[in-house]
């Protein structure tokens, strides 16, 4: 880092963290100055959270050093980090609804100022100092989301934090609440506190941060001054501008429409439209990509298509039939293959051996079943085949799925779903969190399947993957398909802007407007 | 990879070693704790143990143990069916008592030639048990009521309902010469004769219990239905994604558990008492939970666990002669269940760690699958 005046509040040097089969952080360097709001920016899965968990003592780095206020430290637990004045506000609140603000704040920190009047005075003092308008004796259940977040921040300040980590704090807030939060953060900054702000929303980052560090695929790409950067430049840094040259491959798209949704709407139990009037079609031999920032309805869209989530309105058609009312099993038996987003929750049964996992989702069909019976021999033989063909690194097919690394688990799932002549493949983040080698192999399998005439729906947060793989690419934002881009000449910056809801192109950047 | 390497690395036979070793370790720990308790109660533990074993292995005890274990076994299988799908059927007790009473009424009222009468009573018991349990399943999928709560409530309702129906004014009659109230006796043509063994009579329906155990094993491990049930128990989310209709699965599993629960009272009803009376054994459903835990939801393990619990019950009688309160046996059974749960969890974690190490070793060696080195693989 070029800047080096005074002692930084936090300095992370060459942090590397590996998990089985994947490097979450590689040689990460970040310097956070005292009294600044420093944003950590990157796509989902880029390694932001892992890095912050390391700084907060929830995980230990494999390599690298952490310095706080100029002194090198080693954190074993969050308690160690708290003792050094680092506090973390998690994205999901950890509050007891049936307790008061005061009780929530002192919970676990009773030793500091007791649980009575002294604690109440201390809380009032902090609240006044930082401009928090909070009544310590109110029940948390009576508070709105913005106030709850302030209670969380208060908890951290009460424990003496001088460095605050906020993990995606705006994800749960409506715009007015975001403005209030930013007001609070500016007050904190004015009092000399340091704030580390994690987000992937470019406009917000530009409006609140002094400096921004961009992380991509576990590595720090750059640290920039917020005043000197545009949201387009930031999007470019986030998704990477050195794209592999678009595939010079002939299109295999046919005129046969294999799958379509029209007017598909999915509502939450509260009646909010999570997927809003979505229509698109997939032809044989075509890969249709859906680009979007996490949480814009793509997960629900897929669950509706596979039949796991009830559809409020619209139709789903597959191979000429209206399958809107079909069960998940019927859809799968009809030839819809599914690579789920969360392989550990939806793709595997971790406590069972590989060969039983090979049957998952295919348990009614050969080679796994013969009539009502399980065909153990058939399933085992085919598992061995998948293990070989898809290069699943395992000592055998009797080990539990939990014992494999993420990449090898994913290869098993891909192999399984490619088997049995699928006619439509729904692939949600097929290469998330796996190593580069496995990633390339999975891409190759997708291409081969496409060439063989498979229709593929690809949902991903990896823009390179989307641009490189898709024939047609839709952008989803707040549950709606807002754009369809031409993959042959779209730039990742344009795509990034469309995804994050920033105004595309034309000089004006979202950051200036905040 | 040669077999001995596989064993060392925690694959193959090692798993079986752990599977058998874990309950033995748990039992030894439980035994040691019980002995300490006996010691603390001022009894010579070794003396007490020897007298229990001596008494428990007499021929009349063996018959008694087998008969008692039959009910325990069926009860534990009923509980295990739910457990395999992560459903906690605490209502086996109510289910089997309802089933036994109504089936007894039917058997006492209808006289059919030999195999038909027995089949009628048994099928009726299965249906009643299944229906009673299905209520809990339906409540869970339609109203979101935890099956733990609803089955406990249904136990209480069953108790009340039986008390209401088991009345001379309704389905029962007073036995002359006693104050016992019972359903009309099942005629001899409807009874199931037992086997003569060592001067006693073993329930004929012990054969049924064995058949149920085998059926449980086959259905759970060899059928598509069993596969759906098992994966639902391990990961409801993965099961749903694979196409399992979890709501239907919950109701079916609950009902199936109840069907087997309906059988729990049959060996006693058709083999010894021939009537449902105030004295009909109660509480087998709760013992079944402990036995299913101890037997690891495995039909063979449950068999051994049922025999162990039955043995402890039977031999507890002798403790009183030695001035030891027989309740110490309850403490012993409780200790066994606790240690078993703890030891199994520790072993499970140990097993996963062993496997992960084995996988890591394979990765480092560049193997693709056991016994094969890819040509030109790294190193």
Structure notes:
The complex is a heterodimer of chains A (514) and B (379). Chain A is α/β, with parallel strands linked by helices and 514 residues long. Helices cover 33% and strands 25% of the residues of chain A. In chain A, the strands form 5 sheets. A 6-stranded mixed sheet of chain A has the order 6-7-8-3-9-10, sandwiched between helices. Chain A is globular, with a radius of gyration of 25 Å. In chain B, the strands form 2 sheets. Chain B has a two-stranded antiparallel ribbon with strand order 1-2. The two termini of chain B are 17 Å apart. Chain B has 379 residues and is mainly alpha-helical. In chain B, strand 1 (173-174) and strand 2 (181-182) form a beta hairpin. Chain B is built from 15 helices and 4 strands. The interface between A and B is large, with 50 and 39 residues.
What attributes does this structure have?
heterodimer, A: 514 residues, alpha/beta, Rossmann fold, 3 domains, six-stranded mixed beta sheet, 19 helices, 25% strand, globular, B: 379 residues, mainly alpha, ABC transporter involved in vitamin B12 uptake, BtuC, 2 domains, two-stranded antiparallel ribbon, 15 helices, 4 strands, disordered N terminus, disordered C terminus
In short:
The complex is a heterodimer of chains A (514) and B (379). Chain A has 514 residues and is α/β, with parallel strands linked by helices.
């Amino acid at each position: 880092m070029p800047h080096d005046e005074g002692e930084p509040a936090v300095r992370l040097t060459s942090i590397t963290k590996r998990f089985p089969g994947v490097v979450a952080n590689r040689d990460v360097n970040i310097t956070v100055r005292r009294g600044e709001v420093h944003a950590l920016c990157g796509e989902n899965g880029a390694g932001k959270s892992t890095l912050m968990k390391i700084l907060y003592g929830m995980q230990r780095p494999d390599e690298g050093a952490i310095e706080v206020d100029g002194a090198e430290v080693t954190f074993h637990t969050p308690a160690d980090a708290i003792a050094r004045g680092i506090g973390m506000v998690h994205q999901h609140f950890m509050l007891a609804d049936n307790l008061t603000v005061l009780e929530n704040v002192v919970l676990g920190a009773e030793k500091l100022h007791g649980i009575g009047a002294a604690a109440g005075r201390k809380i009032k003092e902090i609240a006044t100092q930082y401009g928090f308008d909070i009544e310590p004796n109110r029940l948390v259940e009576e508070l709105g989301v913005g106030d709850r977040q302030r209670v969380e921040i208060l908890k951290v300040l009460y424990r003496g934090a001088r460095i605050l980590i906020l993990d995606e704090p705006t994800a749960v807030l409506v715009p007015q609440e975001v403005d209030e939060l930013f007001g609070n953060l500016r007050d904190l900054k004015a009092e000399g506190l340091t704030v580390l702000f994690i987000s992937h929303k470019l406009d917000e980052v530009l409006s609140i941060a002094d400096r921004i560090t961009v992380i991509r695929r576990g590595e720090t790409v750059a640290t920039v001054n917020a005043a000197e950067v545009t949201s387009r430049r930031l999007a470019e840094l986030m998704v990477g501008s050195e794209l592999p040259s678009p595939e010079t491959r002939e299109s295999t798209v046919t005129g046969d429409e294999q799958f379509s949704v029209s007017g598909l709407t999915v509502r939450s139990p509260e009646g909010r439209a999570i997927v809003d009037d979505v229509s698109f079609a997939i032809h044989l031999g075509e890969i249709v990509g859906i680009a979007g920032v996490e949480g814009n309805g793509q997960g629900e869209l897929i669950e509706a298509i596979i039949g796991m989530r009830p559809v409020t309105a619209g139709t789903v058609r597959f191979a000429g039939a209206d399958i809107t009312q079909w069960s998940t099993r019927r859809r799968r038996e009809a030839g819809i293959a599914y690579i789920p987003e969360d392989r550990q929750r939806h793709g595997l049964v971790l406590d069972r051996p590989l060969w039983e996992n090979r049957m998952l989702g295919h348990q009614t069909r050969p080679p796994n079943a013969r009539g009502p019976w399980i065909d153990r021999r058939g399933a085992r033989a085919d598992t061995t085949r998948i293990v070989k063909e898809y290069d699943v690194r395992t000592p055998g097919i009797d080990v539990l799925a939990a014992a494999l690394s993420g990449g090898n688990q994913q290869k098993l799932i891909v192999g399984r779903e490619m088997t049995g002549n699928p006619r439509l493949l729904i692939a949600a983040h097929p290469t998330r969190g796996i190593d580069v080698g496995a990633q390339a192999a999975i891409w190759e399998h997708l291409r081969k399947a496409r060439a063989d005439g498979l229709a593929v729906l690809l949902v991903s947060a990896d823009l390179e993957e989307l641009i490189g793989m898709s024939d047609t690419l839709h952008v989803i934002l707040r549950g709606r398909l807002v754009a369809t881009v031409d993959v042959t000449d779209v730039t990742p910056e344009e795509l990034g802007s469309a995804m994050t809801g920033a105004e595309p192109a034309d000089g004006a950047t979202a950051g200036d407007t905040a | 990879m040669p077999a001995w390497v596989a064993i060392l690395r925690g694959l193959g036979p090692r798993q079986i070693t752990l599977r058998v070793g874990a309950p033995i370790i748990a039992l030894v720990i439980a035994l040691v704790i019980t002995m300490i308790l006996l010691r603390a109660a001022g009894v010579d533990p070794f003396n007490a143990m020897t007298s229990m074993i001596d008494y428990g292995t007499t021929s009349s005890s063996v018959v008694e143990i087998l008969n008692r274990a039959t009910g325990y076994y069926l009860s534990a299988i009923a509980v295990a069916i739910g457990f395999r799908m992560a459903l906690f059927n605490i209502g086996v007790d109510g289910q089997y008592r309802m089933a036994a009473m109504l089936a007894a009424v039917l058997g006492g009222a209808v006289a059919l030639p030999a195999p038909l009468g027995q089949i009628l009573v048994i099928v009726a018991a299965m249906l009643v048990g299944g229906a009673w349990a299905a209520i809990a399943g339906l409540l869970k999928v339609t109203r979101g009521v935890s099956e733990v709560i609803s089955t406990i409530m249904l136990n209480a309702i069953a108790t009340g309902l039986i008390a209401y129906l088991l009345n001379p004014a309704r389905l029962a009659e007073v036995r002359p010469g006693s104050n016992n109230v019972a359903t009309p006796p099942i005629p001899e043509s409807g009874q199931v004769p037992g086997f003569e063994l060592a001067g006693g009579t073993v329930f004929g329906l012990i054969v049924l219990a064995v058949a149920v155990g085998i059926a449980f094993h086959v259905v759970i491990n060899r059928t598509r239905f069993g596969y759906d049930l098992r994966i639902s128990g391990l990961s409801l989310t993965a099961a749903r994604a694979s196409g399992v209709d979890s709501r239907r699965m919950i109701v079916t599993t609950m009902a199936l558990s109840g069907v087997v629960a309906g059988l729990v009272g049959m060996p006693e009803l058709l083999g010894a008492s021939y009537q449902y009376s105030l004295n009909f054994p109660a509480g087998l459903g709760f013992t079944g939970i402990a036995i299913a835990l101890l037997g690891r939801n495995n039909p063979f393990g449950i068999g051994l666990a049922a025999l162990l619990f039955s043995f402890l019950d039977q031999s507890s009688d002798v403790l009183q002669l030695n001035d030891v309160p027989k309740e110490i046996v309850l403490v012993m059974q409780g200790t066994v269940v606790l240690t078993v749960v703890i030891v199994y969890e520790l072993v499970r974690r140990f097993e996963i760690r062993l496997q992960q190490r084995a996988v890591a070793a394979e990765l480092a060696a560049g193997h693709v699958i056991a016994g094969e080195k890819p040509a030109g693989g790294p190193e």
